C-alpha cells in the first residue's frame, strides 16, 4: 500500500502541466537595468503565455555568450552589434534576431574635473578599455575627427575595472564605460565623470545590445515568440516605469540599490521600442565603418547576419 | 640524442592528435583551431607576438629573482629566529591559500598598470614554494655534521655558511623548480587584470576579437617559454648541486 502511494506521488511530481519550449538565453554581463525588458517579460509571464520556458544566464566571461550560441550550447545570447560584425567576419554562424538597446551606451568617460575638455586633449594620455576587441576602431575614429592618431594615446586593458581605474587616477580616460551605468556609479562614489558620446564624435550610431541566434535557427518560431514577448515587456516599461522597476527587482533584492535605480531611469529611453524591427542601413553603415578602420576585410550582405525578429 | 628525439616525437604526436580531433569532430575554428592554422598565424604575426613575449619574459624573470631572494631571506630568518617563525609561518600559508586571481585587482590598484603588479604577482606565487623548500632543507641538516663542526669550534655563522646552506641546497633546488613552473602563471594573471603588453594581454585581445588562432599562437609561445625556463633552471640547478648523489629508483637495482 505504502509503495503504491509512493509510486503514485512520484507520478504526480513527474507529470508536466504543459510542455513549454525551453530557451536558454545568455546575458552579456551580470544582471543590470539593461536587461529590464527580459526580466519584466519573465515576471509578467510574457514568455509563459507564448509557451516558452526561458532561462536567463549571466556569463562567466562576457566574450563567451555569442560563441556558445554559435557552438549550439545556448539558444540565444545578448550581444553587441559591433561585436557581431567582427564575429561574423571570423566565421561565427550568428544572426541578429532582435534589438534590446537601440542606441550606443559605450562612451569615453573622463573625470568631471579632468583637464580633458575635448577629444584632442587625449594626446599623450592613458586610455583604459575593457574586454578587448574593437575599442581601437571606436577610439581611432574619434581621434581621427580631431586630427590625432591611435599611437598618440596609450591604450591599457583594465578589464572589469573601468570605473575604479578612472577614479583612482591610474588612467586619464576610459572607453567602453556605459553612459547609463558607469557614470552613475562614479557619481555615487563622489568622483563624477563626464562623457563623450561616440555617436557624436565620429562613430556611426549602432545598437548597443542585440539578440543573436545561431544562423540556422533564425526562423525558429520560439525566437519570434521571444521577441514578441520582449516587445510586450518594453511597452509595459514605457507605460508603467515604476511598476516595471518593482518587477525587475522582484526576487532579486541585491539589485535594489541606488545605482540600479538611477541606471534604470537613464536606460528607459534607450530600449528598442520595436525589438523585432531591423534598420539594415544602420548595419551596413557600421560594417562599412569597420572596414574603413581595418577591423574587417569584407562586408557580407546584411541579410546574411541580421533579420527581422518575426 | 634520445633526450631530444623522444620529446620531439611526443610533441609531434600530440600535434597530430590535435589535428585529427579538429578534423574528425569538425570543431569550429573559433572554438579550437587546428595546429596548422595556429602555426600559420604564429608565423604571420611573429614580430608582434615576439614583442609581447619579451615583455612577459621580463616579468617572469624579475618575479623569479625577487621571489627567490625574498623566499631565501624568509627561510633563513625562520630557521634562525623562533619569533620570526611564529609570525612568518601564518603569512606564508595565507600567501599560498589566497587564490591569486582574487589578489590581482588589488595589486593593480596599488601598483598601477605598469610592470610592477605582474612582477608582484609572480613573486607572490613562488614565495611559498621557495620559502617552504629552503626552510625545510635548513631544518633537516644532518645533526652529526653539526656536532662535528661544533667540536671543531666552528662559529654559528660558519656552520650556516659551510654546512647548513650547502646541505639545504637540494631542497632549495626542488623549491626553485616548482617556482620556475608556476612563475609564468603569476605574470599572465597579472596581465589579465590590467596591462597594455604581454602574452596574457595579447591572448585577451585576440579572444575579444574572435581571432582564436592568434590567441592559441600566443598560448603556444607562452608554453614553450615556460618549458624553456624550467629546463634552463633545472640544468643550472643540477650543475650547482652536482655533488648530490642521484639514486634513480628506475636504474638502481
What does the model show?
The complex is a heterodimer of chains A (310) and B (253). By secondary structure, chain A is of the alpha/beta class. Chain A contains 12 helices and 10 strands. Chain A has a 5-stranded mixed sheet, sandwiched between helices. In chain A, strands 7-6-8-5-9 form a 5-stranded mixed sheet, with helices on both faces. In chain A, β6 (126-129), α6 and β7 form a beta-alpha-beta unit. The longest helix of chain A is centred in the last third of the chain and has 19 residues, at 221-239. Chain B has 253 residues and is mainly α. Chain B has one domain (33-240): MetI-like fold, CATH 1.10.3720.10. Chain B is built from 10 helices and no strands. Chain B starts with a helix and ends in a 13-residue tail after the last helix.
- Helical amount of chain A: 25-40%
Oligomer: heterodimer
Number of strands of chain A: 10
Look at the structure and give the CATH class of the largest domain in chain A: Alpha Beta
Whole-number average pLDDT of chain A?
91
Number of domains of chain B: 1
CATH topology of chain B: MetI-like fold
Terminus-to-terminus distance of chain B: 25 Å
Strand arrangement, major sheet of chain A: 2-1-3-10-4
The major β-sheet of chain A equals: 5 strands, mixed
Spatial shape of chain B: globular
Biggest sheet layout of chain B = none
